[in-house]
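As a warm-up, study this chain.
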Amino acid sequence: MRMKIALLGAEGTLARLLLEQAQAEGIRLVPVTLPDNADPQALAEWLEPWRGGALVDLRHADWPALLGEPEVAALDEWQQSCEGLIDTCAAQDCLLLWPSSARVFDGGKPTLWSEKDLPQPVGRLGALQAALEQRLCNAGGRHLILRLSWLLDPAPQAQFGQLLAGLRSGQPLQLAEEWRGNPTPLADAARVLLAMLKQSDCGADLSGIYHYGSSEASSWISLAKVLAQELLARGQIDADPQILPVAFETQPQAVFEPRNAALSCKRITHVFGIKPRAWRTQLAELVKP
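Now compare it with the structure written out below.
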């Protein structure tokens, strides 16, 4: 790859998977950290080696996968650093690849969300993501915004990790039947990020907002049932767990997650040639002990 690529947030799981996939293809991504002094001049000097290249910002990429929302102070700090970074990347002709999420939508639409739908966030994180998206689009620089649906992170503090733990516990689970999205393993999201970088290396300016989610859309309760069968097949549980459907509004996710988080992926397929992979075939890797 001709383009120089820097990576922020290399300590996260999504970043680690991206680094592994890039290394397997002989592509070099250089982990970097922001300078302590993040004033405009310091940022410009720090970013100078990446002028004309690309910066992948995966700091806090795991936030949308967690159960709950970050503290207000953490969101404010992230907003300030992102705003400075967005302006500096635009001034330095540095492509900024930045993940967002379906939390920018309110979930009221019954069909798939497309890139043409206007953001109407339901929570603090979604509101900040929508604001940063707008700033990035208005900055005038090269940029790629990748909105992701449900990220399947098996970490204990993540929503998917807690679902796994609940199924393994053998206790009855109350799950929202009306909550819909695209279950997307982190490794699949990393694959898409790398593919976008590879296409961008060809020199075309493909700036804009894109959606990705593994196929097909599912309810959270349907995901749980398929996951339970995978655990049964691997001997990690002894019997079908008791899953009780409840209204979405009774679940903690209703405060910060859209009821419908299912995304249309037509644009990313048309522009980048990236086809969604089926999440069902990827579950086995996620349930390894």
